[in-house]
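A favour, since you know our structure tokens better than I do. Would you make up a two-line entry for one protein for me to read? Write everything out right here, beneath this request.
=====
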Amino acid sequence: MKNKNQTISGTNIDEVKRLNAQSGLSYNQAKSLLAKKKGFDSSTK
């Protein structure tokens, strides 16, 4: 029987989620941070 947290191809879903949580800022978070540092507000689009 396959592990519940594993895809058909064998990818460990819990491991992927753990690694994603440790990967740092998302694209949108980085974009927002850079906009704030440059004096722009990216949330007004």
User: Anything to note?
Assistant: The chain has a mean pLDDT of 84. The chain has two helices and no strands. The CA atoms of residues 6 and 22 lie 20 Å apart. Residues 14-44 form one domain.
